[in-house]
Amino acid sequence: MKIGIVGAGRVGAACALSLVTRGSAREIVIVDRTRARAKAVAADLRYGAPLCPEVALRDGDYAELAGADLVMLTAGVNERSGGATTAATPKGASSFSKRTPASTATWFRR
After folding, report:
1. Contacts (Cβ under 8 Å, ≥6 apart) of 10
2. What are the structural domain ranges in the chain?
3. DSSP string, 46-80
4. What is the per-residue DSSP string for 29-53?
């Protein structure tokens, strides 16, 4: 199973760690608006991967999510102190849609 993770922050890294340690995927692609961050998260996870079930773990861009069985959208806007999670949701969705290339709409048309 190929899984893509969009967002290499704390939530995305935690999801990737869980997928690696449980052996839930054969291939994991991590995408972030800052490619260096996605690369760093993938590298960190690869250090511990030999102790886990076999997985191909790499950073990538939106085009590399093609053919993924699951794409986890973990990117969003950081909460500010005093703000509720639900208050950040519309802003996070708007932020994500601005960063996501229009060509990625084909992910959901299979």
Report:
1. none
2. 2-108
3. HHHGGGSS--EEEE--GGGGTT-SEEEE---PPPP
4. EEE-SSHHHHHHHHHHHHHHGGGSS
Axis crossing angle, helix 10-22 with helix 35-48, rounded to the nearest 10: 30
Q: What is the CATH number of domain 2-108?
A: 3.40.50.720
Q: What is the pLDDT of residues 71-88, one digit of tens each?
A: 999 987 766 655 555 555
Q: The pTM is what?
A: 0.75
Separation CA 27–CA 45 (nearest Å)? 13
- Could you tell me if 66 and 96 are in contact, meaning their C-beta atoms sit under 8 angstroms apart? no
User: What is the tens place of the pLDDT at every residue in 56-71?
Assistant: 999 999 999 999 999 9
C-beta of residue 20 within 8 angstroms of C-beta of residue 50:
no
**27 alpha-carbon distance from chain centroid:** 12
